[in-house]
Design goal:
The structure is a single chain. Helices cover about 65% and strands about 0% of the residues. The protein is mainly α and about 110 residues long. It has 2 domains: about 40 residues, Orthogonal Bundle (Arc Repressor Mutant, subunit A); about 45 residues. The longest helix has about 40 residues.
């Protein structure tokens, strides 16, 4: 497939459109303009505009100035949150299993 060349003005306008539309995504604008999203993201990065929605890897190090006791409290709180979420998901899964069994019993295949 032949590479397409886009004018500098088209590139600037595409980047400006992304920069000035806070709810827009790279993929959405690229689709609207008929270009590949990787092409548009390259132009955006080259222009020095941060791409929204990209998460940076989180560090496992405690926040600066956090004492060991504060870290322990924070981590215990996080464990409680995760255990609650696990309990909720397990309950939902059991409900869905029971519903699947019920509806499977109604069919006469």
């Amino acid at each position: 497939m032949a590479r397409k060349t886009y004018s500098a003005e088209f590139r600037r306008d595409a980047v400006e459109l992304y920069r000035t539309t806070p709810t827009a995504t790279v993929a959405g604008i690229a689709a609207d303009l008929g270009i590949m999203d990787t092409t548009l993201s390259g132009w955006i990065k080259a222009a020095g505009v941060p791409i929204r929605g990209q998460s940076r890897p989180r560090s496992s190090a405690p926040p600066p100035g956090e004492s060991p006791e504060q870290e322990l409290v924070r981590l215990r709180s996080k464990v409680r949150e995760l255990e609650d979420e696990k309990r909720k998901l397990s309950t939902e899964r059991e409900i869905l299993r029971a519903a699947a069994k019920y509806f499977a019993g109604e069919t006469n295949w």
